[in-house]
Design goal:
By secondary structure, the chain is mainly beta. It is 0% helix and 38% strand.
Length: 200
C-alpha cells in the first residue's frame, strides 16, 4: 500500500543561496548521468544574500582556481573537465510555515507547495497564486493545463487556500506516466497515492 503524502506550504524568505555550479551540457548524449536530470551537475554553496535570484550579481568574477568549485557530479563519479560549464547559480530560500525550517526548492521534500509567481497572470488561480507541488515524479503545476499531466483533458479545479494546506483539494487526479509513474488525488492537503504508482 502506497503512503499518503502530507502537503505543506513554503513561503519565500527573500534570501538567496548562491552556489558554485559545474555541469556538462544535457546535449552530450555520450556522457549520461544516473541522476534525476540525466546530465552531470555539481553544486557548492558559498553565501546567502538578500534579493531576487534573477537580480543577484555574483559579486565579480570567481577565479576557476577557487578550491570551492565542485570537482565531480553530485549524483555519480563523473569528474568535471575544463571545458564543462562554470556558473554562479542563485536560488531562492523558502521557509516551511509549519516547522520554520528553511530550504531551497531543490532540497524540499515531497509534498512541498509554493507559489510560482513568475508565471503569467493567465496561468494563475483565482487567488492570484500559481500553485506548484513537489511529487516523487517531479513538480506538479496545479494551476497549469491538466492535459499535460492528468487522466483528463479538462483543467484542474483547485479549491482551498494553499497557505492553509489542509484546505486544498484538486480535481481530477494527477498522473505522471513516468518514469517513474505517479498517480494520486489531492484531497484536503494530502496526496493519496494510487496503487499504479511506482514505489518511492
Amino acid at each position: 500500500m502506497q503512503p499518503k503524502i502530507t502537503c505543506f506550504w513554503l513561503e519565500d524568505t527573500g534570501k538567496v543561496l548562491r552556489q558554485f555550479r559545474r555541469y556538462r551540457s544535457s546535449a552530450d548524449k555520450n556522457s549520461p548521468c544516473r541522476g534525476r536530470y540525466g546530465y552531470h551537475n555539481g553544486h557548492a554553496p558559498f553565501d546567502v544574500v538578500q534579493g531576487e535570484p534573477n537580480r543577484v550579481i555574483s559579486g565579480g568574477a570567481m577565479p576557476k582556481t577557487d578550491p570551492r568549485w565542485p570537482t565531480k557530479c553530485d549524483a555519480c563519479d563523473y569528474i568535471f573537465q575544463p571545458d564543462d560549464a562554470w556558473q554562479i547559480s542563485p536560488t531562492s530560500i523558502y521557509r516551511r510555515t509549519d516547522t520554520g525550517e528553511e530550504m531551497t526548492l531543490r532540497d524540499a521534500p515531497f509534498g512541498a507547495m509554493w507559489d510560482a509567481w513568475w508565471f503569467d497572470e493567465h496561468r494563475k488561480g483565482p487567488d492570484g497564486l500559481h500553485l506548484m507541488i513537489k511529487t516523487p515524479a517531479g513538480e506538479w503545476s496545479v494551476d497549469g493545463p491538466a492535459a499535460f499531466g492528468s487522466n483528463s483533458r479538462e483543467p484542474w479545479k483547485r479549491a482551498g487556500d494553499p497557505r492553509t494546506p489542509g484546505s486544498v483539494s484538486a480535481q481530477p487526479s494527477i498522473l505522471f506516466n513516468g518514469p517513474p509513474c505517479f498517480h494520486a488525488w489531492l484531497t484536503n492537503g494530502e496526496l493519496h497515492v494510487l496503487p499504479d504508482s511506482a514505489p518511492f
